[in-house]
Protein backbone atom coordinates (compact mmCIF):
# COMPACT_ATOMS: atom_id res chain seq x y z
CA UNK A 1 0.00 0.00 0.00
CA UNK A 2 1.23 3.48 -0.83
CA UNK A 3 2.39 5.64 2.04
CA UNK A 4 0.90 9.12 2.66
CA UNK A 5 4.17 10.66 1.47
CA UNK A 6 3.95 8.73 -1.81
CA UNK A 7 0.34 9.83 -2.33
CA UNK A 8 1.28 13.44 -1.65
CA UNK A 9 4.00 13.15 -4.27
CA UNK A 10 1.55 11.65 -6.78
CA UNK A 11 -0.98 14.44 -6.19
CA UNK A 12 1.54 17.27 -5.94
CA UNK A 13 0.66 20.39 -7.91
CA UNK A 14 3.68 22.01 -9.53
CA UNK A 15 4.31 25.53 -10.79
CA UNK A 16 2.68 26.82 -14.00
CA UNK A 17 4.07 25.30 -17.17
CA UNK A 18 6.53 27.23 -19.29
CA UNK A 19 4.58 28.57 -22.29
CA UNK A 20 1.40 26.60 -21.50
CA UNK A 21 -0.71 29.30 -23.14
CA UNK A 22 0.60 28.53 -26.63
CA UNK A 23 -0.97 25.08 -27.08
CA UNK A 24 -4.02 26.18 -25.09
CA UNK A 25 -4.75 29.19 -27.30
CA UNK A 26 -3.90 27.29 -30.49
CA UNK A 27 -6.34 24.50 -29.64
CA UNK A 28 -9.10 26.92 -28.63
CA UNK A 29 -8.66 28.95 -31.82
CA UNK A 30 -8.57 25.88 -34.07
CA UNK A 31 -11.43 23.94 -32.48
CA UNK A 32 -13.50 27.09 -31.97
CA UNK A 33 -13.23 28.00 -35.63
CA UNK A 34 -14.08 24.47 -36.76
CA UNK A 35 -17.01 24.04 -34.39
CA UNK A 36 -18.53 27.44 -35.13
CA UNK A 37 -18.24 26.74 -38.86
CA UNK A 38 -20.06 23.42 -38.41
CA UNK A 39 -22.70 25.14 -36.27
CA UNK A 40 -23.27 27.72 -39.00
CA UNK A 41 -23.74 24.85 -41.47
CA UNK A 42 -26.10 23.04 -39.12
CA UNK A 43 -23.78 20.01 -38.89
CA UNK A 44 -22.30 20.15 -35.41
CA UNK A 45 -22.72 16.38 -35.34
CA UNK A 46 -19.60 16.16 -37.55
CA UNK A 47 -17.35 17.74 -34.90
CA UNK A 48 -15.66 14.41 -34.12
CA UNK A 49 -14.14 14.27 -37.60
CA UNK A 50 -12.80 17.84 -37.62
CA UNK A 51 -11.38 17.33 -34.12
CA UNK A 52 -9.24 14.45 -35.45
CA UNK A 53 -7.06 17.02 -37.17
CA UNK A 54 -7.96 20.07 -35.06
CA UNK A 55 -6.49 18.62 -31.86
CA UNK A 56 -3.15 18.49 -33.66
CA UNK A 57 -2.88 22.16 -32.68
CA UNK A 58 -1.59 20.92 -29.32
CA UNK A 59 1.68 19.62 -30.80
CA UNK A 60 5.06 21.05 -31.70
CA UNK A 61 5.05 24.33 -29.79
CA UNK A 62 8.58 23.92 -28.43
CA UNK A 63 10.16 23.27 -31.84
CA UNK A 64 11.76 25.79 -34.22
CA UNK A 65 9.41 26.49 -37.09
CA UNK A 66 11.18 24.44 -39.75
CA UNK A 67 11.19 21.37 -37.49
CA UNK A 68 7.68 22.20 -36.27
CA UNK A 69 6.37 22.16 -39.83
CA UNK A 70 7.78 18.67 -40.42
CA UNK A 71 6.75 17.26 -37.04
CA UNK A 72 3.23 18.65 -37.29
CA UNK A 73 2.86 17.26 -40.79
CA UNK A 74 3.89 13.81 -39.57
CA UNK A 75 1.63 13.89 -36.49
CA UNK A 76 -1.36 15.19 -38.43
CA UNK A 77 -0.86 12.70 -41.24
CA UNK A 78 -0.65 9.91 -38.67
CA UNK A 79 -3.85 11.12 -36.98
CA UNK A 80 -5.79 11.24 -40.24
CA UNK A 81 -4.50 7.84 -41.40
CA UNK A 82 -5.31 6.30 -38.00
CA UNK A 83 -8.80 7.77 -38.14
CA UNK A 84 -9.13 6.35 -41.64
CA UNK A 85 -8.21 2.88 -40.39
CA UNK A 86 -10.65 3.13 -37.49
CA UNK A 87 -13.48 4.43 -39.68
CA UNK A 88 -12.87 1.70 -42.23
CA UNK A 89 -13.08 -0.93 -39.50
CA UNK A 90 -16.30 0.64 -38.23
CA UNK A 91 -17.76 0.52 -41.76
CA UNK A 92 -16.78 -3.12 -42.30
CA UNK A 93 -17.99 -4.61 -39.01
CA UNK A 94 -20.34 -3.93 -36.13
CA UNK A 95 -18.60 -6.47 -33.90
CA UNK A 96 -17.56 -4.40 -30.87
CA UNK A 97 -14.92 -6.92 -29.79
CA UNK A 98 -13.19 -6.60 -33.16
CA UNK A 99 -13.36 -2.82 -32.97
CA UNK A 100 -11.79 -2.89 -29.51
CA UNK A 101 -8.92 -4.96 -30.94
CA UNK A 102 -8.45 -2.46 -33.78
CA UNK A 103 -8.41 0.48 -31.35
CA UNK A 104 -5.91 -1.35 -29.08
CA UNK A 105 -3.49 -2.12 -31.93
CA UNK A 106 -3.68 1.47 -33.16
CA UNK A 107 -3.07 2.75 -29.61
CA UNK A 108 0.06 0.58 -29.36
CA UNK A 109 1.34 1.92 -32.70
CA UNK A 110 0.70 5.50 -31.58
CA UNK A 111 2.62 4.94 -28.34
CA UNK A 112 5.53 3.23 -30.09
CA UNK A 113 5.98 5.80 -32.86
CA UNK A 114 5.39 8.91 -30.74
CA UNK A 115 7.90 7.74 -28.10
CA UNK A 116 10.44 6.71 -30.74
CA UNK A 117 10.14 10.03 -32.60
CA UNK A 118 10.06 12.01 -29.32
CA UNK A 119 7.26 14.19 -30.63
CA UNK A 120 6.82 15.72 -27.19
CA UNK A 121 3.63 16.54 -25.31
CA UNK A 122 0.82 15.59 -25.47
CA UNK A 123 2.32 12.41 -26.95
CA UNK A 124 0.22 9.57 -28.28
CA UNK A 125 -2.85 10.03 -26.09
CA UNK A 126 -4.64 12.69 -28.17
CA UNK A 127 -4.36 10.63 -31.35
CA UNK A 128 -5.54 7.52 -29.49
CA UNK A 129 -8.48 9.47 -28.05
CA UNK A 130 -9.81 10.57 -31.44
CA UNK A 131 -9.00 7.28 -33.17
CA UNK A 132 -10.78 5.15 -30.56
CA UNK A 133 -13.83 7.38 -30.81
CA UNK A 134 -13.88 6.99 -34.60
CA UNK A 135 -13.78 3.20 -34.30
CA UNK A 136 -17.15 3.16 -32.52
CA UNK A 137 -19.07 5.65 -34.67
CA UNK A 138 -21.40 3.84 -37.11
CA UNK A 139 -20.06 4.29 -40.63
CA UNK A 140 -20.86 3.57 -44.26
CA UNK A 141 -18.09 3.05 -46.77
CA UNK A 142 -19.57 5.83 -48.91
CA UNK A 143 -19.09 8.32 -46.05
CA UNK A 144 -15.40 7.60 -45.46
CA UNK A 145 -14.08 10.06 -48.03
CA UNK A 146 -16.09 13.11 -46.81
CA UNK A 147 -15.38 12.30 -43.17
CA UNK A 148 -11.65 12.01 -43.82
CA UNK A 149 -11.83 15.23 -45.81
CA UNK A 150 -13.20 16.93 -42.70
CA UNK A 151 -10.33 15.49 -40.67
CA UNK A 152 -7.88 16.82 -43.27
CA UNK A 153 -9.50 20.28 -43.11
CA UNK A 154 -9.07 20.29 -39.33
CA UNK A 155 -5.44 19.17 -39.72
CA UNK A 156 -4.71 21.91 -42.26
CA UNK A 157 -6.16 24.58 -39.98
CA UNK A 158 -4.21 23.22 -36.99
CA UNK A 159 -0.98 23.34 -39.01
CA UNK A 160 -1.62 26.95 -40.05
CA UNK A 161 -2.48 28.06 -36.51
CA UNK A 162 0.65 26.45 -35.06
CA UNK A 163 2.87 27.95 -37.74
CA UNK A 164 1.31 31.44 -37.66
CA UNK A 165 3.52 32.81 -34.80
CA UNK A 166 6.50 32.57 -37.16
CA UNK A 167 5.15 35.74 -38.80
CA UNK A 168 5.70 37.93 -35.72
CA UNK A 169 8.06 35.90 -33.51
CA UNK A 170 10.25 33.95 -35.96
CA UNK A 171 12.97 33.01 -33.46
CA UNK A 172 10.78 32.42 -30.41
CA UNK A 173 11.44 28.68 -29.88
CA UNK A 174 15.21 29.07 -30.17
CA UNK A 175 15.24 32.04 -27.79
CA UNK A 176 13.03 30.22 -25.29
CA UNK A 177 15.19 27.09 -25.31
CA UNK A 178 18.31 29.19 -24.71
CA UNK A 179 16.53 31.08 -21.91
CA UNK A 180 15.63 27.81 -20.20
CA UNK A 181 19.28 26.72 -20.18
CA UNK A 182 20.31 30.04 -18.63
CA UNK A 183 17.59 29.74 -15.98
CA UNK A 184 18.75 26.23 -15.02
CA UNK A 185 22.33 27.52 -14.82
CA UNK A 186 21.21 30.42 -12.63
CA UNK A 187 19.51 28.03 -10.21
CA UNK A 188 22.67 25.92 -10.01
CA UNK A 189 24.79 28.98 -9.29
CA UNK A 190 22.48 29.90 -6.39
CA UNK A 191 22.73 26.43 -4.81
CA UNK A 192 24.81 25.78 -1.70
CA UNK A 193 28.13 24.12 -2.64
CA UNK A 194 27.31 21.00 -0.63
CA UNK A 195 23.81 20.64 -2.06
CA UNK A 196 24.07 20.16 -5.86
CA UNK A 197 23.65 16.52 -6.76
CA UNK A 198 24.28 14.69 -10.00
CA UNK A 199 20.62 15.02 -11.05
CA UNK A 200 20.70 18.82 -10.79
CA UNK A 201 23.91 19.01 -12.78
CA UNK A 202 22.57 16.60 -15.38
CA UNK A 203 19.49 18.83 -15.67
CA UNK A 204 21.78 21.66 -16.80
CA UNK A 205 23.58 19.37 -19.25
CA UNK A 206 20.17 18.40 -20.65
CA UNK A 207 18.95 22.00 -20.90
CA UNK A 208 22.09 23.05 -22.80
CA UNK A 209 21.78 20.02 -25.07
CA UNK A 210 18.08 20.80 -25.76
CA UNK A 211 18.93 24.41 -26.61
CA UNK A 212 21.71 23.36 -28.99
CA UNK A 213 19.35 20.91 -30.66
CA UNK A 214 16.78 23.66 -31.04
CA UNK A 215 19.37 25.93 -32.67
CA UNK A 216 20.52 23.10 -34.95
CA UNK A 217 16.93 22.51 -36.10
CA UNK A 218 16.52 26.14 -37.22
CA UNK A 219 16.46 26.93 -40.89
CA UNK A 220 19.75 28.27 -42.35
CA UNK A 221 18.18 31.71 -42.80
CA UNK A 222 17.17 31.87 -39.14
CA UNK A 223 20.58 30.61 -38.04
CA UNK A 224 22.18 33.47 -39.96
CA UNK A 225 19.72 35.97 -38.49
CA UNK A 226 20.30 34.79 -34.92
CA UNK A 227 24.05 34.72 -35.37
CA UNK A 228 26.42 33.26 -32.81
CA UNK A 229 24.90 35.02 -29.80
CA UNK A 230 22.70 32.13 -28.54
CA UNK A 231 25.67 29.75 -28.69
CA UNK A 232 27.75 32.26 -26.75
CA UNK A 233 25.05 32.34 -24.07
CA UNK A 234 25.07 28.54 -23.90
CA UNK A 235 28.85 28.57 -23.40
CA UNK A 236 28.25 30.73 -20.32
CA UNK A 237 25.37 28.55 -19.14
CA UNK A 238 27.48 25.40 -19.44
CA UNK A 239 30.29 27.08 -17.50
CA UNK A 240 28.04 27.03 -14.41
CA UNK A 241 28.94 23.32 -14.08
CA UNK A 242 32.51 24.32 -13.25
CA UNK A 243 31.73 27.48 -11.26
CA UNK A 244 31.33 27.97 -7.50
CA UNK A 245 28.20 29.56 -6.06
CA UNK A 246 27.99 33.03 -7.60
CA UNK A 247 24.77 35.01 -6.95
CA UNK A 248 25.97 37.88 -9.16
CA UNK A 249 26.53 35.56 -12.13
CA UNK A 250 23.19 33.87 -11.44
CA UNK A 251 21.41 37.22 -11.62
CA UNK A 252 23.23 38.07 -14.84
CA UNK A 253 22.11 34.76 -16.39
CA UNK A 254 18.53 35.36 -15.23
CA UNK A 255 18.58 38.85 -16.78
CA UNK A 256 19.79 37.40 -20.09
CA UNK A 257 16.98 34.84 -19.93
CA UNK A 258 14.40 37.58 -19.38
CA UNK A 259 15.72 39.48 -22.39
CA UNK A 260 15.49 36.34 -24.51
CA UNK A 261 11.90 35.69 -23.49
CA UNK A 262 10.94 39.21 -24.47
CA UNK A 263 10.99 38.61 -28.18
CA UNK A 264 11.48 42.22 -29.30
CA UNK A 265 14.69 42.72 -27.34
CA UNK A 266 18.00 41.94 -29.05
CA UNK A 267 19.75 38.70 -28.12
CA UNK A 268 22.41 39.42 -25.46
CA UNK A 269 25.92 39.05 -26.82
CA UNK A 270 28.36 38.20 -24.01
CA UNK A 271 32.07 38.10 -24.65
CA UNK A 272 34.09 34.89 -24.55
CA UNK A 273 37.69 34.21 -23.74
CA UNK A 274 39.89 33.15 -26.63
CA UNK A 275 39.84 29.57 -25.35
CA UNK A 276 36.04 29.55 -25.07
CA UNK A 277 35.64 30.98 -28.57
CA UNK A 278 37.94 28.29 -29.97
CA UNK A 279 35.98 25.66 -28.07
CA UNK A 280 32.73 26.98 -29.52
CA UNK A 281 34.09 26.67 -33.05
CA UNK A 282 35.21 23.09 -32.30
CA UNK A 283 31.78 21.87 -31.13
CA UNK A 284 30.71 18.83 -33.18
CA UNK A 285 27.38 19.05 -35.05
CA UNK A 286 24.26 17.91 -33.21
CA UNK A 287 23.11 14.50 -34.41
CA UNK A 288 19.85 12.66 -33.88
CA UNK A 289 19.35 8.90 -33.99
CA UNK A 290 17.20 7.81 -36.94
CA UNK A 291 13.85 6.23 -36.13
CA UNK A 292 14.96 2.77 -37.21
CA UNK A 293 17.84 2.87 -34.71
CA UNK A 294 15.45 3.65 -31.86
CA UNK A 295 13.12 0.82 -32.91
CA UNK A 296 15.80 -1.82 -33.41
CA UNK A 297 15.23 -5.32 -31.97
CA UNK A 298 15.82 -5.21 -28.24
CA UNK A 299 14.50 -1.66 -27.88
CA UNK A 300 12.98 -0.91 -24.47
CA UNK A 301 10.05 0.74 -26.28
CA UNK A 302 8.74 -2.55 -27.68
CA UNK A 303 7.53 -4.03 -24.34
CA UNK A 304 5.73 -0.75 -23.62
CA UNK A 305 3.90 -1.03 -26.95
CA UNK A 306 2.98 -4.63 -26.14
CA UNK A 307 1.66 -3.50 -22.76
CA UNK A 308 -0.54 -0.92 -24.49
CA UNK A 309 -1.94 -3.45 -26.97
CA UNK A 310 -2.68 -6.06 -24.30
CA UNK A 311 -3.97 -3.63 -21.69
CA UNK A 312 -6.18 -1.62 -24.03
CA UNK A 313 -7.71 -4.73 -25.60
CA UNK A 314 -8.39 -6.30 -22.20
CA UNK A 315 -9.90 -3.06 -20.87
CA UNK A 316 -12.22 -2.70 -23.86
CA UNK A 317 -13.35 -6.33 -23.76
CA UNK A 318 -13.98 -6.22 -20.02
CA UNK A 319 -15.97 -3.03 -20.49
CA UNK A 320 -18.09 -4.80 -23.12
CA UNK A 321 -18.62 -7.74 -20.77
CA UNK A 322 -19.92 -5.31 -18.12
CA UNK A 323 -22.41 -3.88 -20.60
CA UNK A 324 -20.87 -0.43 -21.05
CA UNK A 325 -22.00 1.24 -24.26
CA UNK A 326 -18.78 3.13 -24.93
CA UNK A 327 -15.87 0.70 -24.43
CA UNK A 328 -13.45 3.07 -26.20
CA UNK A 329 -13.32 5.11 -23.00
CA UNK A 330 -11.80 2.12 -21.22
CA UNK A 331 -9.34 1.72 -24.12
CA UNK A 332 -8.26 5.38 -23.83
CA UNK A 333 -7.98 5.17 -20.03
CA UNK A 334 -5.75 2.11 -20.27
CA UNK A 335 -3.62 3.83 -22.93
CA UNK A 336 -3.20 6.86 -20.67
CA UNK A 337 -1.93 4.71 -17.79
CA UNK A 338 1.09 3.27 -19.59
CA UNK A 339 4.23 5.26 -18.87
CA UNK A 340 7.95 4.53 -19.08
CA UNK A 341 7.87 2.11 -16.12
CA UNK A 342 5.54 0.41 -13.65
CA UNK A 343 5.91 3.03 -10.91
CA UNK A 344 4.99 5.90 -13.20
CA UNK A 345 2.09 3.84 -14.58
CA UNK A 346 0.74 3.27 -11.04
CA UNK A 347 1.00 6.98 -10.32
CA UNK A 348 -0.78 7.85 -13.55
CA UNK A 349 -3.61 5.41 -12.74
CA UNK A 350 -4.21 7.09 -9.38
CA UNK A 351 -4.15 10.52 -10.99
CA UNK A 352 -6.51 9.42 -13.77
CA UNK A 353 -9.10 7.92 -11.41
CA UNK A 354 -9.13 10.95 -9.09
CA UNK A 355 -9.23 13.44 -11.96
CA UNK A 356 -12.08 11.59 -13.68
CA UNK A 357 -14.14 11.45 -10.49
CA UNK A 358 -13.85 15.21 -9.99
CA UNK A 359 -14.34 15.80 -13.71
CA UNK A 360 -17.62 13.86 -13.66
CA UNK A 361 -18.84 16.12 -10.86
CA UNK A 362 -17.89 19.15 -12.97
CA UNK A 363 -19.69 17.70 -16.01
CA UNK A 364 -22.84 17.08 -13.95
CA UNK A 365 -22.83 20.73 -12.87
CA UNK A 366 -22.20 21.93 -16.44
CA UNK A 367 -24.89 19.87 -18.21
CA UNK A 368 -27.75 22.36 -17.65
CA UNK A 369 -25.64 25.19 -19.09
CA UNK A 370 -24.44 23.07 -22.04
CA UNK A 371 -28.01 22.29 -23.01
CA UNK A 372 -28.97 25.94 -23.28
CA UNK A 373 -27.91 25.77 -26.92
CA UNK A 374 -25.11 24.88 -29.34
CA UNK A 375 -23.14 28.06 -28.67
CA UNK A 376 -23.10 27.35 -24.93
CA UNK A 377 -22.04 23.76 -25.65
CA UNK A 378 -19.17 24.93 -27.87
CA UNK A 379 -18.09 27.56 -25.34
CA UNK A 380 -18.03 25.08 -22.46
CA UNK A 381 -16.03 22.59 -24.51
CA UNK A 382 -13.45 25.24 -25.38
CA UNK A 383 -13.29 26.42 -21.77
CA UNK A 384 -12.54 22.86 -20.63
CA UNK A 385 -9.91 22.51 -23.36
CA UNK A 386 -8.21 25.70 -22.18
CA UNK A 387 -8.36 24.59 -18.55
CA UNK A 388 -6.83 21.20 -19.39
CA UNK A 389 -3.87 22.81 -21.14
CA UNK A 390 -3.44 25.36 -18.35
CA UNK A 391 -3.20 22.57 -15.76
CA UNK A 392 -1.41 19.74 -17.57
CA UNK A 393 2.11 20.93 -16.72
CA UNK A 394 1.13 21.51 -13.09
CA UNK A 395 -0.59 18.20 -12.44
CA UNK A 396 -2.01 15.42 -14.62
CA UNK A 397 -4.91 14.73 -12.26
CA UNK A 398 -5.87 18.40 -12.19
CA UNK A 399 -5.81 18.53 -16.00
CA UNK A 400 -8.01 15.41 -16.12
CA UNK A 401 -10.65 17.29 -14.12
CA UNK A 402 -11.14 19.39 -17.28
CA UNK A 403 -10.44 16.67 -19.85
CA UNK A 404 -13.28 14.48 -18.57
CA UNK A 405 -16.12 16.98 -19.06
CA UNK A 406 -14.59 18.04 -22.39
CA UNK A 407 -14.77 14.45 -23.67
CA UNK A 408 -18.33 14.05 -22.41
CA UNK A 409 -19.42 17.36 -23.94
CA UNK A 410 -18.07 16.18 -27.31
CA UNK A 411 -20.64 13.36 -27.23
CA UNK A 412 -23.34 16.03 -26.94
CA UNK A 413 -22.43 17.47 -30.35
CA UNK A 414 -24.28 14.58 -31.98
CA UNK A 415 -27.34 15.23 -29.78
CA UNK A 416 -28.30 15.25 -26.09
CA UNK A 417 -27.39 12.08 -24.22
CA UNK A 418 -28.77 10.78 -20.90
CA UNK A 419 -26.42 12.46 -18.42
CA UNK A 420 -26.79 9.80 -15.75
CA UNK A 421 -25.85 7.04 -18.21
CA UNK A 422 -22.88 9.06 -19.51
CA UNK A 423 -21.54 9.59 -16.00
CA UNK A 424 -22.03 5.95 -15.00
CA UNK A 425 -20.39 4.62 -18.17
CA UNK A 426 -17.46 6.99 -17.88
CA UNK A 427 -16.80 6.13 -14.24
CA UNK A 428 -17.01 2.39 -14.85
CA UNK A 429 -14.76 2.61 -17.91
CA UNK A 430 -12.24 4.69 -15.96
CA UNK A 431 -11.98 2.10 -13.20
CA UNK A 432 -11.84 -0.78 -15.68
CA UNK A 433 -9.21 0.92 -17.84
CA UNK A 434 -7.00 1.92 -14.90
CA UNK A 435 -7.11 -1.48 -13.22
CA UNK A 436 -6.62 -3.39 -16.46
CA UNK A 437 -3.72 -1.17 -17.41
CA UNK A 438 -2.00 -1.86 -14.10
CA UNK A 439 -2.55 -5.59 -14.46
CA UNK A 440 -0.98 -5.41 -17.93
CA UNK A 441 2.04 -3.67 -16.38
CA UNK A 442 2.40 -6.57 -13.95
CA UNK A 443 2.00 -9.25 -16.60
CA UNK A 444 4.06 -7.70 -19.41
CA UNK A 445 7.37 -6.90 -17.73
CA UNK A 446 10.02 -4.71 -19.29
CA UNK A 447 13.32 -6.31 -18.30
CA UNK A 448 15.03 -4.46 -21.13
CA UNK A 449 15.23 -1.35 -18.94
CA UNK A 450 17.94 -3.11 -16.88
CA UNK A 451 19.87 -3.98 -20.03
CA UNK A 452 19.56 -0.40 -21.19
CA UNK A 453 20.99 0.84 -17.89
CA UNK A 454 23.93 -1.57 -18.15
CA UNK A 455 24.67 -0.33 -21.67
CA UNK A 456 24.42 3.27 -20.50
CA UNK A 457 26.89 2.63 -17.67
CA UNK A 458 29.31 0.96 -20.09
CA UNK A 459 28.99 3.82 -22.61
CA UNK A 460 29.59 6.40 -19.88
CA UNK A 461 32.68 4.57 -18.70
CA UNK A 462 34.00 4.55 -22.28
CA UNK A 463 33.31 8.28 -22.51
CA UNK A 464 35.10 8.92 -19.21
CA UNK A 465 38.19 7.10 -20.46
CA UNK A 466 38.21 9.32 -23.55
CA UNK A 467 37.76 12.38 -21.34
CA UNK A 468 40.70 11.38 -19.13
CA UNK A 469 42.87 10.93 -22.22
CA UNK A 470 41.85 14.36 -23.50
CA UNK A 471 42.64 15.92 -20.13
CA UNK A 472 46.06 14.26 -20.09
CA UNK A 473 46.85 15.71 -23.52
CA UNK A 474 45.73 19.19 -22.44
CA UNK A 475 47.82 18.99 -19.26
CA UNK A 476 50.87 17.91 -21.29
CA UNK A 477 50.38 20.83 -23.67
CA UNK A 478 50.31 23.30 -20.83
CA UNK A 479 53.61 22.08 -19.46
CA UNK A 480 55.26 21.42 -22.84
CA UNK A 481 58.26 23.48 -23.82
CA UNK A 482 59.05 22.33 -27.34
CA UNK A 483 57.76 23.97 -30.50
CA UNK A 484 55.78 20.85 -31.31
CA UNK A 485 54.15 20.98 -27.88
CA UNK A 486 53.17 24.62 -28.36
CA UNK A 487 51.68 23.94 -31.81
CA UNK A 488 49.41 21.17 -30.58
CA UNK A 489 46.68 22.94 -28.56
CA UNK A 490 44.34 23.78 -31.49
CA UNK A 491 44.02 20.14 -32.51
CA UNK A 492 43.94 19.01 -28.90
CA UNK A 493 41.12 21.44 -28.14
CA UNK A 494 39.06 19.91 -30.91
CA UNK A 495 39.62 16.49 -29.36
CA UNK A 496 38.73 17.65 -25.85
CA UNK A 497 35.59 19.39 -27.11
CA UNK A 498 34.47 16.23 -28.89
CA UNK A 499 35.22 14.17 -25.78
CA UNK A 500 33.15 16.57 -23.68
CA UNK A 501 30.21 16.36 -26.10
CA UNK A 502 30.29 12.55 -26.02
CA UNK A 503 30.53 12.57 -22.23
CA UNK A 504 27.56 14.93 -21.91
CA UNK A 505 25.43 12.76 -24.20
CA UNK A 506 26.40 9.65 -22.22
CA UNK A 507 25.42 11.35 -18.96
CA UNK A 508 21.98 12.22 -20.31
CA UNK A 509 21.35 8.66 -21.46
CA UNK A 510 22.63 7.28 -18.14
CA UNK A 511 20.29 9.48 -16.11
CA UNK A 512 17.26 8.62 -18.28
CA UNK A 513 18.08 4.91 -18.25
CA UNK A 514 18.54 4.89 -14.46
CA UNK A 515 15.27 6.73 -13.82
CA UNK A 516 13.36 4.38 -16.12
CA UNK A 517 14.88 1.15 -14.82
CA UNK A 518 14.45 2.09 -11.15
CA UNK A 519 10.67 2.31 -11.49
CA UNK A 520 10.24 -1.07 -13.19
CA UNK A 521 9.18 -4.11 -11.21
CA UNK A 522 10.27 -7.76 -11.60
CA UNK A 523 13.59 -6.77 -13.09
CA UNK A 524 17.14 -8.01 -12.54
CA UNK A 525 19.15 -6.43 -9.76
CA UNK A 526 20.29 -3.01 -10.90
CA UNK A 527 23.84 -1.67 -10.49
CA UNK A 528 22.60 1.36 -8.55
CA UNK A 529 25.83 2.16 -6.74
CA UNK A 530 27.96 1.51 -9.81
CA UNK A 531 25.73 3.78 -11.91
CA UNK A 532 25.80 6.54 -9.27
CA UNK A 533 29.59 6.34 -8.93
CA UNK A 534 29.99 6.39 -12.72
CA UNK A 535 27.74 9.44 -12.98
CA UNK A 536 29.62 11.34 -10.26
CA UNK A 537 32.98 10.53 -11.84
CA UNK A 538 31.71 11.60 -15.26
CA UNK A 539 30.54 14.94 -13.83
CA UNK A 540 33.95 15.43 -12.22
CA UNK A 541 35.64 14.91 -15.61
CA UNK A 542 33.11 17.15 -17.34
CA UNK A 543 33.91 19.89 -14.84
CA UNK A 544 37.64 19.43 -15.42
CA UNK A 545 37.21 19.71 -19.20
CA UNK A 546 35.16 22.88 -18.77
CA UNK A 547 37.80 24.38 -16.48
CA UNK A 548 40.42 23.77 -19.17
CA UNK A 549 38.11 25.40 -21.71
CA UNK A 550 37.74 28.50 -19.63
CA UNK A 551 41.48 29.01 -19.19
CA UNK A 552 42.58 32.61 -19.57
CA UNK A 553 41.05 35.88 -18.49
CA UNK A 554 37.40 36.36 -19.39
CA UNK A 555 36.71 39.32 -21.64
CA UNK A 556 34.28 41.80 -20.21
Concise overview:
The protein is mostly helical and 556 residues long. It has helices spanning 4-10, 21-40, 47-54, 65-92, 96-117, 125-135, 144-163, 172-189, 198-216, 220-226, 229-239, 247-261, 274-282, 291-294, 301-321, 328-337, 342-370, 374-391, 396-412, 419-443, 448-479, 483-487, 489-518, 528-549.
Description:
The chain is mostly helical and 556 residues long. The protein has 3 domains: 295 residues, no CATH class; 91 residues, no CATH class; 102 residues. The chain contains 24 helices and no strands. The longest helix is centred in the last third of the chain and has 32 residues. The C terminus is likely disordered.
Q: Could you tell me the strand content as a percent range?
A: under 5%
Sketch the major β-sheet.
none
Question: H/E element string?
Answer: HHHHHHHHHHHHHHHHHHHHHHHH
Helix share bin: over 70%
Shape: globular
Q: Write down how many β-strands occur, each being a DSSP E stretch of 2 or more residues.
A: 0
Enumerate how many helices there are, as a single number. 24
Number of domains: 3
Radius of gyration: 26 Å
Mean of residue pLDDT values:
85
Structural class: mainly alpha
| Unreliably modeled segments | 481-488, 552-556
**Span of the ends, CA to CA:** 58 Å
Amino acid sequence: MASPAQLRQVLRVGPPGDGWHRPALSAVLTLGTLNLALFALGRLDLALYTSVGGLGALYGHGLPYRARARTLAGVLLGAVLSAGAALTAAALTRDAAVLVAVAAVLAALHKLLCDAARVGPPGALIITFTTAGCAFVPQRLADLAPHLALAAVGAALAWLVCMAPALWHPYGPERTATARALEVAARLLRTDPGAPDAAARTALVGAVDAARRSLALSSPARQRALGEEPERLLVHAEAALASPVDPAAAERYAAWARDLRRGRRPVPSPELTEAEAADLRALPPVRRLPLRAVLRPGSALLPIALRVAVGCAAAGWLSLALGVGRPYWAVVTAASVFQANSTLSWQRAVQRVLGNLLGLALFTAAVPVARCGPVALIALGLLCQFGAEAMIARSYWLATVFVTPMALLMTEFAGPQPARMLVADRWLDTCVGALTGLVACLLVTNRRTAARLSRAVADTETATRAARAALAVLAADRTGSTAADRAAPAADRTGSTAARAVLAAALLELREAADTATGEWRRPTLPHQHAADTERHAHHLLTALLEHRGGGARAV
